[in-house]
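pinned: reference chain
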Amino acid sequence: MGFLEGIVAVYLRQLYYPEGFHFPLTLLSPEMLKVEWLREITTIIMLVSIAWLAGRYFIQRLSYFLFTFAVWDIFYYIALKLILDWPSSWLTWDILFLIPVTWLGPVLAPVICSLTMIVMAVLYTYLPGKGHPVIIRPLDWILVLAGSALIFFTFTIDYLNLILRNAKTTDADSPEVKEQFWKAITSFVPDHYNWLIFFAGELLIIGSIYFVVKKSISNK
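pinned: its structure tokens
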């Protein structure tokens, strides 16, 4: 699935970025944007289906989903590197997702997230096999959800700011304001990623994993 996703990205870049992918972005038509949303949704449905069929209970299914999602994401970048020799570095900016708004970030950020998900999934499936049922307390869920929210914030803040600036305009529906909004999007070039907030989110997630593993082992 990672290679298939990479191949689709190759086609899209040939259509919209024949001279190579770069910022500012070329806007998709509303019709193509809907198609891309549908592609992303169906990809998630496929991954959820794999996890649901492979797992027997919630934590196991969640672990399988995280694992397959992470492996898919990593192999997506492996495919692009093999086919297009892209990205040029770990800090190359990329479009990560389009739902509900455009997600942006250096390639290294989603790769770190994927590796974290793999570690979590492996531990949460390994422990029960060794006689240690996974015990996740409400605090552990709060930590992992708070960490995920911080990371989501770093991916979406740039485009959320563009949308909010337009929404604050008194006459946001006027053709002139809409034209200015689209110009802002098509001229936007990301130049700063908030690694501090990203790693704060990572630390919360890693802390949650640590507490879950510790609690599960001590309650054999």
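why pinned: The chain has a mean pLDDT of 90. Helices lie at 2-16, 30-54, 58-84, 108-129, 138-167, 175-187, 195-218.
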